[in-house]
From TrEMBL:
Pfam families: HTH_1, LysR_substrate. Belongs to the LysR transcriptional regulatory family. It comes from the Bacteria. InterPro entries: LysR_HTH_N, LysR_subst-bd, WH-like_DNA-bd_sf, WH_DNA-bd_sf. This is LysR family transcriptional regulator. The lineage of its organism: Bacteria, Pseudomonadati, Bacteroidota, Flavobacteriia, Flavobacteriales.
Length: 296
């Protein structure tokens, strides 16, 4: 009998760990139930650890089994990524970078990065996915994204976070609002207006920052609507359903009957940061990071 754990052992183990039923796992693997039981018993003998608690009514993972399940899933994900990268290299590409982003990053940061990658590393493939802040953090942690662009105050300790763009905020008013942009004297004037904000769940840091802008002006904003899309916010403002505060870069690319007042006199800034795992296995991620933060 082999004294080493092989990938087939882990495949069998994960099938049972997912199903928590030996017969169903055996059917899934197209092997006999007694054969599967022998493989699991062999694993437990090699590892000198009980992986499952078995009785006539149910099968359950032991603490050691839970640990092995987590580690095995991570290992197979790494192997899948290695295979994917090798296939790209075999096709003449040097790899792929998977990028998550917020809509505001598409105004400047993402297009510039894609152009630099194309010009400097033309064989690197890129894929983009627009996700909320917290979904990006989760995807980067799981290895489903290589790098994300978020607006957050902090991230888990095993991620790097570095600011890539600092922007001002702008007040968004309906075109018919009874104030010219040059007449702006401070946020105090808007204490009685309804505000339309990005959802707190979508961007907690943004939401708290807007609260602090209004707090500094001496009032708590009356929030009438929330959204996760800038276009929706602008449309609501356009229809006189409230006013909004957004990162200034978001004013570009939308043709709506709204006007923007840049809030240069406040200390708050809209910070866009890049996040990536401190321990990553994508060979082209470092090239991307170097381009993103290159000194001009």
């Amino acid at each position: 009998m082999s004294s080493q754990i092989e990938l087939r052992h882990l495949t069998y183990f994960l099938a049972v760990a997912d199903e928590l039923h030996f017969r169903k796992a055996a059917e899934k693997l197209f092997i006999s139930q007694p054969g599967l039981s022998r493989q699991i018993k062999q694993m437990e003998e090699i590892l000198q650890a009980e992986l499952f608690v078995r009785d006539k009514k149910k099968v359950a993972l032991t603490p050691a089994g839970h640990y092995l399940k987590h580690q095995s899933e991570s290992l197979f994900k790494q192997l899948k990524e290695i295979k994917r990268q090798l296939q790209l290299i075999g096709e003449g590409d040097t790899g792929e970078i998977r990028i998550g982003f917020l809509g505001s990053a598409m105004q400047d940061v993402i297009p510039n990065l894609l152009l630099k990658l194309r010009d400097t590393f033309p064989k690197i493939k890129t894929s983009l996915e627009e996700l909320s802040n917290l979904n990006q953090v989760d995807a980067v942690l799981k290895g489903d994204l290589d790098i994300g662009f978020v607006r957050l105050a902090k991230v888990p300790a095993n991620l790097h976070m570095r600011t890539v763009y600092e922007d001002t905020f702008s007040l968004v008013l309906p075109q018919s609002y009874p104030m010219l942009t040059r007449e702006y004297t401070g946020m105090e004037r808007f204490s009685e207006d309804n505000f339309i904000l990005f959802s707190q769940d979508y961007s907690p840091y943004y939401y708290e920052t807007i609260m602090s802008i209004c707090s500094d002006a001496g009032f708590v904003p009356k929030v009438s609507h929330k959204s996760v899309h800038a276009q929706t916010i602008f449309k609501l403002v356009e229809n006189n359903l409230g006013i909004a505060i957004v990162p200034t870069a978001l004013q570009y690319g939308f043709q709506m009957r709204v006007k923007f007042v840049e809030l240069r006199d406040i200390e708050q800034r809209a910070l866009l940061s890049a996040i990536w795992k401190k321990e990553h296995r994508n060979p082209v991620l470092q090239n991307c990071i170097d381009l993103l933060f290159e000194t001009k």
